[in-house]
Structure formats: structure tokens, C-alpha cells
From TrEMBL:
GO terms of biological process kind: transmembrane transport
Subcellular locations according to the entry: Cell membrane
InterPro entries on file: ABC_transporter_permease, MetI-like, MetI-like_sf
Membrane-spanning ranges: 30-56, 95-117, 129-149, 186-204, 225-251, 283-307
Coiled-coil ranges (or none): none
Primary localization class, coarse: membrane
Protein's name according to its UniProt entry: ABC transporter permease subunit
Entry's family note: Belongs to the binding-protein-dependent transport system permease family.
One Pfam family recorded for the sequence: BPD_transp_1
Domain ABC transmembrane type-1: 89-304
Transmembrane helix is among the record's keywords: yes
Gene Ontology annotations for the cellular component aspect, listed alphabetically: plasma membrane
Amino acid sequence: MQLTQAELTRQKNPSRLSSVWRHIKQDRQLLILFLPCIVFFILFRYGPIYGLIIAFKDYNVYQGILDSPWVGLEHFRRFFDSPDFWILFRNTLQLGLFTLLWAFPFPILFAVMLNEVRFIRFKKWVQTFSYLPSFLSVVIVSSMIIDFLSPTHGLINELLKAFGFTPTYFLAAPEWFRTIYISTDIWQHMGYDAIIYLAAIAAIDPSLYEAAKVDGASRFHMMRYITIPSIMPTIVIMFILKSGAMFRIGYEKVLLLYSPMTYEVADVFSTYVYRKGLLETNYSYASAVGLFESMIALVMLLLTNFVSKRAGGKGLW
């Protein structure tokens, strides 16, 4: 029996569903390993999106989310009219922007310099010690900062007294808060973030370095004209991700380090949401502020990706 053209086409091009099912069967072990990650994101990332409804309601715990009355954009208007809005916006922008400008280049420089080390044992020791701070919790890091900067027995003030300077209560001085926050953030995350750049450097074709060495290029020139341009796509993608998270400053470290004396420079959106939502139980208002913060972060991500694609043709999508 002769097959029609349509039947021949279906035999040559199986349906999309059967193709997907075939790939699932082939990669079932990897998908099983990935399953906990999927469950995590469904439960703790996408599931709570339902709760954002209360940003548009006058939420009452006893009435529940669905039965609480709608108030529309009332909470957003109240927040924008509040004198706290511009203070929070300025502090969040400055802290996020300065952290991005100062903390972003350090892992790149560290990875490039570590790649130039030829003593393998020393290189492994440096890598190990640089990764260790990222495994410490925010509470431990903040406790270390408080102890080191203590005006009575802190290491920093003891050194200042030894050199004849007057001890300073750094954590109570608004002009020192951003410096402390950014410098400790660099120390904590530099080694861990450098892993990505070291992996990108390891993927560079060794023949490029061999050809450059034959042409008489120094190690500095190889680093400048081979290493850095080769990892530039990775740098661009990481910069886009970091820019998108610029407004998403975690409340934990700020909450543990700031005090009423440093509110004017340290209070950010996340700490404000914590106070309004958990301490004052004003859940709807806190959800509105948190939603606004998330929307700003989304706009920053889209804007950075757009500028990157227009400038260099590379982006997340």
C-alpha cells in the first residue's frame, strides 16, 4: 500500500510530544537530580506569588486573603506620599550602586591574578582561604564585624590606640556604614564569585597562549589581550545579573549592623519591609513596598540586558 505524502512527512518528523518524551527517557537520571530544585522553586518562589494579592487589599488575618476587602493602589499611594520613600530610595540606590561598582570588579581581578600563579600548592591554599568566608552565615560575619570594630576591645580600635589615634565607634557613625558594608561584602563573596571566572578562564584554548608566547608577548599582554577578552561574555552576563539584584539588598546584614544612629544612611527597602510587616504586622503595606522593590529590580534587569545587547550584542536572552 502506497503511503501518502502527509503520512511520509509524519514518519520523518515525529510529533513534538513524542520527541519530548524520548528526551525525558534519555535524560531521566539528570531530571530526577534536578527535581528537588524544581520543587524548591515551585514552593518557595512561585507559590508565594499568590500572596502578593494582599498588597491590593486591606488584609486581615481573621478574614483571610480572599475575604479581605480590596483597596486598590491605596498602599502604594501612601508609601509614595510618605517622607520615608525618598530616604529609602536614596539609601537603597546608593548602597546597591556602590556595592556593584566596588564589589563587582574584585572577583574578576582575583580570578585573573590567581590564574597567573604558577605554584600550584600556594594557588590551592589561596583558593581555599578565599572561599571560606562565603560559607559563613550572615550572623557570624556580622558578629565578627561588631567584635572587630568594638570601641572598647575591638582589634581595629586597639591598633588605632597603639598608633596614637582616638578610638572610634564605627558602627554608630553614619559616614562609615557604607564603607563597612561594602568592604566586608567584598571580603565575604570575592572568592566564591571568582569560581565562575576561573571556570571561564579554564575553558580558554591553550593554543592562544602558546601562539602569543611564540610572538614574544609578556604575561601581562596575554592577560590583557587573551584572558580578559575571552571571559568578557561571562563578565557581561554576571554584570547583568548583579545589576538586576542591585535593589534587592538583603535585610539580614543591614539589620544586624545598623542602629537608630545610622538609619539615615542604612535604612533600605528590605529593612523597612521587615519592620512594617513583621514588627508592626502591617502586612498589606509591607507587601506593597516589597512589590515595588521587586518591580524596580525587574526594570533594572531588563534595562541592563537591553543596553548590553545594543552595545555589545550579548545578553541573557
